[in-house]
């Protein structure tokens, strides 16, 4: 089962797992309309906060990949209470259900954003966490819950993903690389705030491959493990990303503004995931920029500002409907 199976990473992951021969159940709350999920995948509409809607399916499930969350600082800021319910309490509900039904493997999608604001030294899995937003704080607390559970038959892996990028059937243009590239192609202009901040980046297809590696490795690895998920050579300052985009879209220009509301700054070490899971990236920032440029220029996306491409706009629309 993949919770959040119709999301940005979920759509890519469900297809990969189906292609590798897994029988996949994609659980999703249906906030973003989609057509299909993956070949041979079962789509189930449900809310991770309400196990009665879906937990009976776990009787036939070996592994759960828990992606479902309100993702991103702006989206969580729309309704912080809801963000905590989904990201923290939803994780507790999923973990409890996995234990009740004897699920053997649980993979939890966390974030390198948990490191928050650091100096320019690399941080690893043992470094202090310094979350700067409701999104990161909810993920940190969800990690704490999973790490506090008594040993059992369910092997748990926490993946702190680098910032994702690249094409997905459920596209997002609110992610740094995707947004800069879209602005360069359609507006011929990129705006960077400060630009000296470090961020690690990971292609969405590589993120899906990392999950698949965990599912195989966890057959031999009981207990709870935490991995930063990404690649050391994909740590970039945001101004460097803008330069790479302009190299691919030479008609665009970059404007650097001094004020920055987002103070996060973290450069991440990924040695453990490479050493223990043999994870190596297949795609990089440059490949992602090229593929997004090609998709935009071919007319695949008309309105990069449409609500369906932004977690913040989706969250805001859902909040209005709930009033």
Automatic annotation (TrEMBL):
Residues 1-230 form the NAD-dependent epimerase/dehydratase domain. It comes from the Bacteria. InterPro entries: Epimerase_deHydtase (IPR001509), Lipid_A_modif_metabolic_enz (IPR050177), NAD(P)-bd_dom_sf (IPR036291). It holds the Pfam family Epimerase. PANTHER family: BIFUNCTIONAL POLYMYXIN RESISTANCE PROTEIN ARNA, NAD(P)-BINDING DOMAIN-CONTAINING PROTEIN. This is SDR family oxidoreductase.
């Amino acid at each position: 089962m993949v919770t959040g199976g119709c999301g940005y990473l979920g759509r890519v992951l469900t297809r990969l797992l189906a292609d590798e021969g897994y029988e996949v159940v994609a659980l999703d709350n249906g906030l973003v309309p989609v057509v299909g999920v993956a070949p041979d995948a079962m789509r189930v509409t449900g809310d991770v906060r309400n196990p009665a809607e879906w937990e009976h399916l776990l009787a036939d499930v070996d592994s759960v990949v828990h992606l479902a969350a309100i993702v991103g600082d702006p989206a969580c800021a729309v309704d912080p209470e809801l963000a905590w319910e989904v990201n923290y309490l939803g994780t507790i509900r999923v973990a409890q259900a996995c234990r009740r039904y004897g699920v053997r493997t649980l993979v939890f999608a966390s974030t390198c954003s948990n490191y928050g604001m650091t100096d320019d030294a690399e941080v690893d899995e043992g470094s202090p966490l310094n979350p700067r937003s409701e999104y990161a704080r909810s993920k940190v607390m969800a990690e704490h819950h999973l790490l506090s559970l008594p040993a059992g038959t369910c092997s748990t892996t926490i993946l702190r993903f680098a910032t994702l990028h690249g094409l997905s059937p459920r596209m997002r243009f609110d992610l740094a690389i995707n947004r800069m590239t879209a602005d360069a192609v359609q507006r011929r202009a990129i705006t960077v705030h400060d630009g000296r901040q470090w961020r690690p980046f990971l292609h969405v297809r590589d993120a899906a491959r990392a999950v698949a590696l965990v599912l195989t490795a966890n057959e031999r690895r009981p207990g709870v493990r935490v991995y930063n998920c990404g690649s050391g050579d994909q740590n970039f300052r945001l101004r460097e990303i803008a330069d790479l985009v302009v190299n691919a879209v030479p008609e665009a220009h970059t404007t650097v503004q001094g004020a920055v509301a987002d103070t996060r700054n973290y450069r991440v070490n990924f040695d453990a995931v490479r050493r223990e899971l043999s994870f190596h990236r297949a795609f990089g920032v440059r490949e992602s920029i090229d593929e997004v440029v090609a998709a935009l220029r071919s007319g695949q996306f008309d309105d990069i500002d449409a609500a369906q491409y932004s977690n913040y706009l989706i969250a805001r629309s859902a909040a209005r409907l709930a009033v």
